[in-house]
UniProtKB/TrEMBL annotation:
Its main location: cytoplasm. Belongs to the PRA-CH family. The gene is hisI. Catalyzes the hydrolysis of the adenine ring of phosphoribosyl-AMP. It comes from Spectribacter acetivorans. Its cofactor is Zn(2+); Mg(2+). Its EC number is 3.5.4.19. InterPro entries: PRA-CH, PRib_AMP_CycHydrolase_dom, PRib_AMP_CycHydrolase_sf. This is Phosphoribosyl-AMP cyclohydrolase.
Amino acid sequence: MNGTTEWLDDVVWNGNGLAPAVVQDATGGRVLMMAWMNRDSLAESLRTGFATFWSRSRGKLWRKGESSGHRQRIVDVRLDCDGDTLLLRVEQVGGIACHTGRESCFYRQLTDGAWQDADPVIRDPEDIYG
């Protein structure tokens, strides 16, 4: 990055100044999670090399892994054809992206008309967050 942030103007931010960010494992391709980013969180992510999002519930920047240690090192960032959705390809530190202790937040599978847990808990959230 050359120090300018003009590239942030190419992102189509919604009415709340946010864009959805899909987070994908750079090696295996699995979708790990989806979160929201604003200009500051995207700029911070590129500045530090680690994923930072905007927490709508807390109204502040959320540095992924700051309490769990399960940080996401950014491999690359892509913007979709409409310019309104980001894709972060990451190396997931510790192999856990979800606060439930699973590899991915997308662990529920629709089976016979009901959502079933399809992925195991890797580490008990109580052990992660206390």
